[in-house]
Amino acid sequence: MSFVPHSDADRSEMLAKVGVSDVRELYADVPAELILDDLLDIPDAVSEWEAIRGIQELAARNRALVCFAGAGQYDHYVPAAVDHLVRRSEFYTAYTPYQPEVSQGTLQVIYEFQTMVCELTGMDVANASMYDGPSAVAEAAIMARAVTRRNGVLAAASLHPHTRKVTETYLHGQGAELKSAPVGPDGLVDRDALAKALGDDVACLVVQYPNFYGVIEELEPLAEMTREAGALLVVSADPVALSLLRSPGACGADIVAAEGQPFGNPLSFGGPVVGFFAAKEKYVRKMPGRIVGATVDEEGRRGYVLTLQTREQQIRRDKATSNICTNQGLNALAATIHMALLGREGLREMADTSAQNAHYAWRRLAEVDGVEPLYPDAPFVREFAVRTKENSRAILERGFSAGILAGVSLSRFPAMGAPDGLLLAFTEKRTRAEIDRLVDVIAG
Amino acid sequence: MSSIPNGLKYTEEHEYLRETDADDEFLVGITDYAQGELGDVVFVELPTPGDTFDRMEVFGTIEAVKAVSDLYSPISGEIVAVNEGLDEDPSLVNSDPYGEGWMVRIRARDVSELDGLLSDTDYASHIEG
């Protein structure tokens, strides 16, 4: 079946109407050396069945491994109800809700999403979502510079290296530099070094909670130090861990960014995902991204509408708070459905089960020779790092044969300066039997 | 018909300059014509006392629901005060642009710059033409 609707007769009629006999005449202004003489060298069209068969053959080469890899995205269970609702065409095909009269469904969902993000992070106001966690952190750093009217950005050395890279890229365009706030032997941000680094030109400190190695950072003292220095505290959070930890808002954070993938979105080999972004109300006019507000119509009925649009590109142009003019609508919808389905108690259980699994693995690994926790005394939620005597890549190979993805090798991030080892993540999907197999793989 | 008080000075960008009891200090705001064109003002972004601006440099922005406009300083100088009342109630710009809707108080660096501004009749012609 051809998906191009025009017949040869249609084409001839159109060409005649335009006064041309061949399509090539329409390209007369293109220099001759740029015109393609032959057709592109691609295979002939195949039938629908042949196409499906080809894709199935490719898909069969995938190996499903039991996943203990995290480092920013996690293998959580996505309930069937999420997909079922997301695929409703009213949601699936909905466009950007610029016209509120015909978009109340979309707008209401985004409003509920924003509300959930505020509750999870303990902040006053959230936007309709960003592309992903790392770019949300980068935008938070830029926002802090606009709010404080200062240039410099400090980031804890324990920030995810990918998040750091993305932030550096965004800041490069602004002519600003990202400096590192060193971490002590306990895995936490070194406060003496931080005090020296918090000068007059620092706009914010970016800290991850829990950090890249799964260590729970103490946010309150950091919030106090940054506040006294006239800077903001930007927290990059694991949204699952937030169900168990004191919220960044309660600890005094000014802006919170998070990778929302764990809610409603499968790993999908990296994406698409969704960034959460929330801040204190007094900074709302400096926030990037779309924001949905609640209002009443002429008859006093509750309605939703895009609001504070004067921050955005389509109105503010080059002076906009950011050049983002979209959100991850469908992914944010999936996250909202998942969070609504689980509710506060369910989210807590999801995090708790993940944590129990992680702590069981920790205790079992303590019995294994040649494996030591990277931070033996540091509290963690659902992720931790171990240093291994054996080459971590060899351990991972052994894992593949046993059907297990035994974590993320620390040797992938030489700039972090950690010894060789594995970063291990746990979700509610992992069973005791699977964890026992992981321990066997690591023990060799 | 918009109000253009005699005795004030004006810019082509619709700001006005009003004398105060201090010889070298002036109040700055936007004209009645400008507030009418903008519609309901929802937010005014003002500088901080101590900030300095050159003549016709942008010193802030004014937001209506679907538009944002830059605010230009009629003269060079230092901001000595800003109207905090506009934080609470930006609609003062609409209801009383020349009175309670004032935006900043500026200390002039060079009073002769006033000669370059428009009189009320010049400004009236400007908005008509």
Strand order of the largest sheet of chain B: 1-2-3-9-8-5
Overall form of chain A: globular
CATH class of the largest domain in chain A, named Alpha Beta
Radius of gyration of chain B: 13 Å
CATH topology of the largest domain in chain A, which one?
A: Aspartate Aminotransferase, domain 2
Give me the Rg of chain A, rounded.
25 Å
Domains of chain B, number = 1
Low-confidence stretches of chain A: none
| CATH-assigned homologous superfamily of chain B | RNA polymerase II/Efflux pump adaptor protein, barrel-sandwich hybrid domain
Low-pLDDT runs of 5+ residues of chain B are none
CATH-derived topology of chain B: OB fold (Dihydrolipoamide Acetyltransferase, E2P)
Helix content of chain A: 25-40%
State the end-to-end CA separation of chain B. 14 Å
Terminal-residue CA separation of chain A: 55 Å
Q: What is the structure about, briefly put?
A:
With 444 residues, chain A is an alpha/beta fold.
Structural overview:
The complex is a heterodimer of chains A (about 450) and B (about 130). With about 450 residues, chain A is an alpha/beta fold. Chain A folds into three domains: about 10-60, no CATH class; about 65-75 and about 345-444, Aspartate Aminotransferase, domain 1, CATH 3.90.1150; about 80-335, 3-Layer(aba) Sandwich (Aspartate Aminotransferase, domain 2). Chain A is about 35% helix and about 15% strand. Chain A contains 13 helices and 15 strands. Chain A has a seven-stranded mixed beta sheet, with helices on both faces. In chain A, helix 5 packs parallel to helix 11 (about 330-365). The longest helix of chain A is centred in the last third of the chain and has 37 residues, at about 330-365. Chain A starts with 7 loop residues before the first helix and ends with a helix. The mean pLDDT of chain A is about 95. Chain B has about 130 residues and is an alpha+beta fold. Chain B has one domain: Beta Barrel (OB fold (Dihydrolipoamide Acetyltransferase, E2P)). Helices cover about 20% and strands about 35% of the residues of chain B. Chain B has helices at about 30-40, 85-90, 90-95, 120-129, and strands spanning about 10, 15-20, 25-30, 40-45, 50-55, 60-65, 70, 75-80, 105-110. In chain B, the strands form two sheets. Chain B has a six-stranded antiparallel beta sheet. Chain B starts with 8 loop residues before the first strand and ends with a helix. The relative contact order of chain B is 0.26. The interface of A and B includes residues 285, 309, 315, 316 and 319 of A.
